[in-house]
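Letters spell out the chain; backbone shape is given numerically. Both lines appear below:
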Amino acid sequence: MARRPKRLRLVTWNINSVRLRLARLADLAVALEPDVICLQETKVTDAEFPLREVRATGYRHIVIKGEKGYNGVAILSKIPLARVADTPNWCGKGDCRHLAVDLDIPGAPVRLHNFYVPAGGDVPDPEANPKFRHKLDFVAEATHWFGNGAAKGGRQIIAGDLNIAPLPDDVWSHRQLLDVVSHTPVETDLLTKWQGTAEGWIDTMRHFVPPPQKLYSWWSYRNRDWRLSDRGRRLDHIWVTPDMAGTLKAGQILKDARDWPLASDHVPVCVEMLV
């Protein structure tokens, strides 16, 4: 008897402090009912991560990698999972920007990567700005890793805040943002090379909403009337390997979350699959 596919609803969200926005995490659990949540910028050490409160929202399987006040990633799941141990020390910095787990999907496990790519600072010059150099090196290193075997061996997903808006329609003004960090040609070219590993990762949001329709997942805190001006960028992504193309059923960016009390400047991105 053939196995019936299982629904997998996956969300990625840069929460910008999990302790500060625990109530918003509960709102997300109700609004989208995800099976798995990838968080970035948790900004908390592993010892201080609010495990009890997160489990109370229905996520019993939790993998975390955090540090005080900066960075940090977490994967919250209703599905059993196993942490992948042999992941790189990205750029030799030991910062908490990547987690990988194997989701226990009967008959066909799925490897899930949660990434928080460095933002890169304000100056798009790797010689003048070490933060921008770190960002370029990080993406190049990820591309090399996946291109040299990490993308092989079964179904995989990359989710996270990749801090790059790759397409002209992923920003409010392609022309005006060409020299702004997150949309410079050197960044978009590097991200395209990363996406080209695994015989071409599928950008799930653009699978459902192709260009030229605008898509954003981030709006600056500096813009108080963010909805009226709508000067956004699509920095948050979910990619799947080509062997998962047939599993994709729906995609959604929860734009209304930008209006939540004490909102993050990023909003959740959600993909539903039958795996």
Q: What stands out?
A: The helical segments are 22-32, 51-55, 130-150, 185-195, 204-208, 226-229.
